[in-house]
Amino acid sequence: MKTRITELLGVQYPVIQGGMAWVAEHHLAAAVSEAGGFGLIGGANAPGEVVREEIRKARELTGKPFGVNVMLMSPHADDVAKVVVEEGIKVVTTGAGNPEKYMDMWKAAGVKVIPVVASVALARRMERYGADAVVAEGCESGGHIGEQTTMTLVPQVVDAVEIPVIAAGGIGDGRGIAAAFMLGAEAVQIGTRFVVSKEAVVHENYKQRIIKAKDIDSAVTGRSHGHPVRCLRNQMTREYVKLEAEGKSFEELEYLTLGALRKAVQEGDITMGTVMAGQIAGLITKEQTCKEMIEEMMAQAKELLGRD
Fold it and tell me: Which residues pair with 114 in a beta bridge?
């Protein structure tokens, strides 16, 4: 299933793993790449040297291409941007901001840059500044989100830019991949389903919470302060929503969620931790290897699209 994205990344399948904080480390990135997709190490808020170590560990597990997701809001973003170049990483995705300040450095080093966008305006701007592709991410996704759905955002971005578009948000099986291709995307980015992969170094409580999730279990917090985050409902989200309704300050609300994602991912606290997951969680019912997931999804997508 060749597209401009599979050619750009040098991969077999047009499936990219999301650069999820605390989840997208070297085991998962290597496993996705080994399975024919494109794995990503999530820079998140980690210092540059931690990301460097993750890159080197991933290279011990796979000789196939993988990339790094740089979270631009991170206080360590400048260091991570340099580490990417120093370690010879050839593909970077970016989130939570605008990567323009790093574009010249990355381009000079031959790095392919794929920003995550939530609007047509940002997609156009990224194309002007030399992005090689964009990830159009709808609000169905887990973590920090925009306002448009994948169904509405992807075709508008596809119409607005000449570079290839990767669809993200609410995609967890072959039907979602086929739908994304019908909207004009040339690849998909998947996060939530890979969280429950056997290779993901995530606490079993977190995985089981996703596997047992129902369609209505998704919640969005932080809209009142312009920082919406999608996760699964628990005591923490209920307290957050209550405080938000009472008009508490952004700082007070941030204190409630301080370290909450790490608590859920590493310690298994699914009561007061932040269980980031997309709306597709209700569709995910089993733990599999990354290879099993990708091959199952691609077989279904190819059948629906009538492609070899």
Answer: 93
Q: How far apart are CA 275 and CA 142, in angstroms?
A: 9
pLDDT in tens, 38-78: 999 998 888 899 999 999 999 999 999 999 999 998 889 99
10 Å CB burial of residue 91 (0-12, 13-18, 19+) is buried
Question: Cβ–Cβ contacts within 10 Å for residue 56, how many?
Answer: 11
Q: Which of 56, 76, 79 is nearest to 66 (CA)?
A: 56
Rounded to two decimals, the pTM is 0.93
If we measure between CA atoms, which residue out of 172, 167, 175, 55 comes closest to residue 114? 167
H helices present in 18-113, as ranges: 26-34, 48-61, 77-86, 100-108
Crossing angle of helices 290-305 and 26-34, in 10° steps, is 40
